[in-house]
Amino acid sequence: MNEATNTGNRTTLRSTSGFWILGVTALLMVFFIIDAVGRGAWNFAVQALPWELLVVWLVYLVLVRPCIVIEPSQLTIVNVGRLHDIPWSRMEEATSRYQLTVLLRDGRKITSWGAPSAGLDRPSMIGGRAGRRGVDHQDRAAGVRRPGRAGNEGPTAVDLIDRAHERWGRIDPKDDRLATSRWDVVALGVTAALVLWGVASALLG
């Protein structure tokens, strides 16, 4: 299952299957804590707490946090530990098979860990609209149905990126921004803090 969250001109896309795994993991960790407290093992419960929180956090970090964010100014890819900001003018095309991959005009490829995928390898209209329209025409003539068409499963991530590029992707000669990649300081900081808490708890216990 896929989730699309719209806030004004900002759309966030991610797979929803991670939420189920996160929920089950959190419930298991709560059960273990309650069980330890019920048995009177308060010291064990306190020592285990940071590690159990770390497990829940890592599940969130790997399965829930990764997503793609579509905005008027750029496409943002949120991966585990890395954030990629891609202005529309720097994008060549996007494809989706099992993961969404963005090809930049400088030849670089950036893969999204959390974007919903269609299971089909097909380019977006960003890199070559004429070729895409020709393929679409052939598909209709042959009776081939693609995900994202009316009457099927709804728009894919690539479809939504195409639409955003049609709306906001006109190259602005004054927009000289480059595609940038940076570390996710918040995610890495929380992970480090939980690890240090767990180590300190074990040493002091």
Question: What can you tell me about this protein's structure?
Answer:
The chain has 205 residues and is α+β, with helices and mostly antiparallel strands. Helices cover 44% and strands 22% of the residues. The protein is built from five helices and nine strands; from the N terminus they run ββααββββββααβα. The protein has helices spanning 17-38, 42-64, 129-142, 157-168, 185-204; strands at residues 2-7, 10-15, 67-70, 74-78, 82-87, 91-96, 100-104, 109-112, 180-183. The protein has a six-stranded antiparallel β-sheet with strand order 1-2-3-4-5-9, sandwiched between helices. The protein has a three-stranded antiparallel β-sheet with strand order 6-7-8, covered by helices on one side. The radius of gyration is 22 Å and the shape is elongated. It starts with a strand and ends with a helix.
